[in-house]
Amino acid sequence: MEKVKPKKHLGQHFLTDLSIAEKIAKAVTGHGGVKKVLEIGPGMGVLTDFLLLEDWDLYLVDIDKESIAYLHQKYPSLGSKIIDGDYLKEDFKNIMNGPYVVAGNFPYNISSQIFFKVLEERDQVTEVVCMLQKEVAQRIASPKGNKDYGILSVLLQAFYDIEYLFTVPPGVFNPPPKVNSGVIRLKRNQVEKLDCNEKLFFRVVKQGFSTRRKTLRNAVKSMGISEELKADTLLDKRAEQLGVEEFIYLTNKIEESWNQ
Ligand SMILES: C[S@@+](CC[C@H](N)C(=O)[O-])C[C@H]1O[C@@H](n2cnc3c(N)ncnc32)[C@H](O)[C@@H]1O
Question: Which Gene3D superfamilies does its entry note (predicted)?
Answer without folding.
Answer: Ribosomal RNA adenine dimethylase-like, domain 2, Vaccinia Virus protein VP39
